[in-house]
Amino acid sequence: MTQNNRLSGGQIDRNTTVNFRFDNRSYTAHPGDTLASALLANDVRLVGRSFKYHRPRGLLTAGSEEPNGIVELRTGNRQEPNTRATTIEMFEGLEAQSQNRWPSLKFDALGVNDLFSNFLSAGFYYKTFMWPAAFWEKVYEPIIRRAAGLGSLSMEADPDEYDKGFRHCDLLIIGAGPSGLMAALTAGRAGADVILADEDFQFGGRLNSETLSVGDQSASDWAAQAVAELSTMPNVRLMARTTVIGAFDHGIYGAVERTGDHLPTLPAGKPRQILWRIYTKKALLCAGATERPIAFENNDRPGIMMASALRTYANRFAVTASQRVAIFTNNDDGHRTAADLHAKGVHICAVIDVREDAPVNYDYEVLSGAQVVNTKGRLGLTFVEVALPDGSTRTLECGALGVSGGWNPNVHLTCHQRGRPVWNEDLAAFVPGSNLPVGLTVAGAANGVMSTQGALQSGMDGAVEAMELSGKLPDLPEAEDAPASQKPFWYVEGCKRAWLDQQNDVTVKDVKLSYQEGFRSVEHLKRYTTLGMATDQGKTSNISALAIMAEVAGKSIPETGTTIFRPPYTPVPISTFAGRMKGQEFHPTRLTPSHYWAKERGAVFVEVGNWLRAQWFPLPGETHWRESVDREARQTRASVGVCDCTTLGKIDVQGTDAAAFLNRVYANGFAKLAVGKTRYGLMLREDGMAMDDGTAARLAEDHFVVTTTTANAVSVYRHMEFVRQCLFPDMDVQLISTTESWAQYAVAGPNSRKLLQKIVDPDFDISNDAFPFMACGNITVCGGLRARLFRISFSGELAFEIAVPSRYGDALMRRLMTEGEEFDVVPYGTEALGVMRIEKGHAAGNELNGTTTALNLGLGKMVSKKKDSIGSILSEREALVEPDVLRMVGIKPVSSEEKITAGGHLMNSAGPVDAAHDQGYVTSAAYSPILNSSIGLGFLKDGANRMGEKMRLVSPLTDLTVEVEIVSAHFVDPEGERLRA
Amino acid sequence: MIINHPLLGPRDSSEFTYLGDASLIDRPDWQAENAAEAFYEYGYLRDNPAGKHQELWFHEAGDRSWLVVTRDTTTHEISKVELARDLARARGRSK
Amino acid sequence: MRYSGFRVIKEALTGHKGWKPVWRDPEPKAHYDIIVIGGGGHGLATAHYLSKVYGQRNVAVVEKGWIGGGNVGRNTTIVRSNYMLDGNEPFYEFSMKLWEGLEQDLNYNAMMSQRGIINLFHTDGQRDAYIRRGNAMILNGADAELLDADQVRKEHPYLNFDDARFPIKGGLVQRRGGTARHDAVAWGYARSADTHGVDIIQNCEVTGLRIENGKCLGVETSKGFIGANKVGCAVAGNSGRVMGMAGMRMPIESHVLQAFVSEGLKPVLPSVITYGAGHFYVSQSDKGGLVFGGDLDGYNTYAQRGNLPVVEDVCEGGVSLMPMIGRARLLRMWGGVMDMSMDGSPIIDRTPVEGLYFNGGWCYGGFKATPASGHCFAHLLAKDEPHPTTTVYRLDRFRTGRMIDEKGVGNQPNLH
After folding, report:
1. Cα separation of A531 and A544, whole Å?
2. Residue B48's domain spans which residues?
3. Residue C178 in contact with residue C114, Cβ under 8 Å?
4. Residues of chain B numbered 30-89 and touching chain A (CB < 8 Å)
5. pTM for this one?
6. Tell me: the pLDDT tens digits for A104-145?
7. For B51-78, what is the mean pLDDT?
8. How large is the greatest C-alpha to C-alpha distance in chain A, in angstroms?
9. Domain spanning A489-553, CATH architecture
10. DSSP assignment letter at A267
11. Where exactly are the structural domains of chain A?
12. Is domain A882-981 classified as CATH 3.30.420.40?
């Protein structure tokens, strides 16, 4: 198909022709086109269907405010729904589909909704579909949901990459129209660090759409020259295709740069879009203005467009929407469109001006005091019906109608911190209010300065003020300087269906109905009618609707209220906010020094926070995880096992007050711990709940090493710093996290000492006498490697933990395995670790769940009352020390065949099974290969006094009831003989 | 947001972890007559002002200082940033 | 005026001339039996139940802005009763039952859609906690189901099962959970309360509480003093401010929670989904927008807006969990001010000031509680004793140690 609607001139590259497809038909276009201009060039006016009534819709605008021309761009896993045709930069091979229609754009079955529109008035759904109640989910809602929505997702993962970045500047200029360019020139020449960002791929804003001159150049040439000068300045960064989406606190702006959307395919390794956080000292909003429509009967037909958009298409893209165009306006700007199109040889049927004193023109007809009262053309405009001042009507045959109701400043970013715009009577528009984001000022049309000359001046002034410049300023070129005043004209009286929000199908009548039903606040209006809630966020409709609401209420517009805007300025792909933090990269993965050793051994890994830990080490022939875990636990208890416990938090505590400090942090006492000894420590939160447990080893008078659980390593360190800096600032104590500095291994089992003796250097005696239970010390291993040895046990066996500098972790693990061969050493993972700690009755994360006190955990006696420690006072509140508080107990099935389920609840052996009779719950469960039984730990009301009681463990969720016996939590070696061996 | 760290200069707030009202510095005396009530109020009751708020931020991804930031909870404007340790000392905390 | 399909048709055929304002616009009287401060979901629901269930005829709701403009108008619309603790589950299940009959009760279609909610788990520890929770739900008479990874995949094949940093191991499902049209909830309650004689007074900001000799006599407002026998405060994020007028410090901090909606899309999500390894929960509205949220910004604030790091964090979670939403666009973000309590659970109780009652501390779970909160607060205001499901929502529970802490994070509101 040829480009029948192409005009002369324009800023497109006519030397190159590119091919694109829309709804599976092929067309041609030129670089510099948007999809919208290319469709118009090829005489395609029908591009979409509206949301509710599925009315045929064409392009309304030429910019990002577009409500109608939204399409599914690209195909396969790159399909991108709801993409504005007006902002899609043309590229070779572009493919787009219309959306929200079935079976085709020209014949859409749901177009039938339009016939019933009278029944589907604003908010009708709140008044019906209530009977019968069950029908909502089953009948009504599925139908509504299928009909609603706009474009579709591919349902495949987004294959593209996205980046994030940070930039800093003295002055961020948002928008590169006349005011933005002039501001950038002013600040740039003065040496300021400037970022100039514009959503368009071509800088210049309206200058590219107008035939005006600036100085002795055409407006677009002046813009091009300004850009050329700016691009030579090292202190100025030009960011095209970059939308500043939001103004956040303290001068931080979010911006999205579309680095790849204009390319047929992304170069390898390049991102599709980049989310920038721009840190600014000052920002200048030069976002221009958006033309507003006039509402009239059937004003939504394809071919009815904003007059300024017609001008953009003609002057910048060399395209007309039709060869026969009429204009409907209430201001002089509409006449400009007629003049420009006429100059390009387009037939102007008439300019219909609501004003009695419309400017005269001899090239084409001007109908003063006239109004468009209706239009015709099912899939595209064919006729407009005009009411003349004498009461007669005239029908004009035309394929496009340009509508101009005046201009609204683009104040959006000024509202992002909930500042409210104010009504300007002269402009009949909202302009930025006084409550702007700190550091932001506004220039040009965005600030209500509507002439080109005014915009240039205002941009320069804005830069001068923001950067506090003095001295010689650049000369301003001369440009159009028409006075700006608008007399508002919102809608044509007497119309039945005149659209305001074209995408969501909100009409003038809906606004009136909203008022009639009491939804009179602007926010109620929006929510009740859905006005302004569509993908364009009401950029062309909000103000008109507000004006109509004011009129119905008999109030002024400022009295009626205003609506503010929220980020983002235009919609942003969710992928862009996510950046590279997705899939495997969602969170960093932390690996212990012996991770690759474990991998070689075929370990199965499990995520523990950001760490990967070996869960178990399957051997050939083992088909079920339990086989591996049982073996690891048995072999450890029988001989010796090694477990990587590097992930435990480690905090170095040094200083003359180190012991006093730990005495405050831990509920139990540390002041008297001897050098060379380790102690189990229970840390409470200030509210008396157990926060974490671990050990503190006293390596010297003024040096402790504290361990924390893996999960709480960060929060415990933070807490200890809080205690140190905020509560006891004069204590001589220093903290540093050394979690990453030391690789640490538990060596457990009756042969653990023998194994360690093979690697610990002979200078160090680790016999039971020289190095008894809870001893600790600095040692060397393997011929001089410094190490730390702790005789502590989580499994209940004779056990040690040995730490070496991280880079030796892998080597140490390999050495332990080699040296341990004679003892049949086994590496064990977190599962066997868990089995053994449950057998021993050690509380862990499942028990330290943030709602348990020391008393609940059976550690009440540890809370020293003789000293000040965090959490001690609040742990004594009445409900926390009642006689029947939950106590940690052991649980085992009466029949060893049965299984204990973590998460099950405990009920008395007889009586009702319901929440009112709940006695407690199971926190941890495991199969004990030593006891040949499933066992569990849990909390039971008054549990300490219920040993031996038979109860029911119920888990209705998993359909289980098991008869259980309450036993001591210490299933294995309750006297602790093994660990002291 | 940007927090102007007294030692390190302006830092993005995402480097910090927030705790809450700086009154958490004023931990009561555990041996006082009314310690139970005082700790309850300390632990649980807040002024929660709409306006200037002194609050604790921890420079977790930085130098691990606890800071007291004076910030307006209606505008987010930050008017003062101090090292919590200095403030704690000024409020009479010691060992 | 009764709403029905028939009525809609009749009005359509007669030019919609018969529709009446959904609520009156009365001037305040000099004195009411009961004044409810706050025309949000909870305040309006309280008014509805006060007038319809508890027979109170002389009631006013005073609202500083427009009704439904607080958190009921800016949330992610989720309704569920999947709590773990004995203090919470009966209350939220009571609320769920009220939701199930809400439209018929109000004669207003709040589009309560029981499409189900799934909380995904990714570790054994999470699974154990969810089993405990699911059991608690069932033992309290609610519904719960545990799905393994295969079952989750069958119902939600678009989730990330191939390349997940934290693989999905299963989920806890409540089929009766779902969503409701949040604005309609406020409007439906307002309409009903108004019909039953409640004065809903908009643009009437409370500027002070008149308290003499330890008794609350009424409220000072931008429209003058309004006397009352009892005053109930249901102002969510503004709890600190209003109760501060009575000289009370509360176990509450105000924080902002951001929420997000995407552009309209054809149906992709059948139910509400909560990610267990990141800050992200999502549902799809009837209009087709993905409605999603995540974590608090984390700092005290009364500004109804947040900052970029949380936006990014939420979207990172979203794309990690369901990579197919990546090319959908985020259309709008907003913030609501949450009354974060010290244990994450609410307070419905008398206060030390006679005649002054408090309803707050809803954290970011207030929407689903709206019906029961209104019902129970109405019970308290009308009968001066707590409703059986709220006897534990006491103001002094922190003093006595009876916290209701689902998450187990203690007295740090921004962690709940």
Report:
1. 11
2. 2-90
3. yes
4. 30-31, 35-36, 39-40, 42-43, 56, 58, 60, 64-66, 75-78, 83-86, 88-89
5. 0.97
6. 999 999 889 998 888 898 999 999 888 887 888 888 888 888
7. 98
8. 117
9. Orthogonal Bundle (1.10)
10. P
11. 1-156, 161-289+409-467, 293-405, 489-553, 648-738+851-881, 882-981
12. no
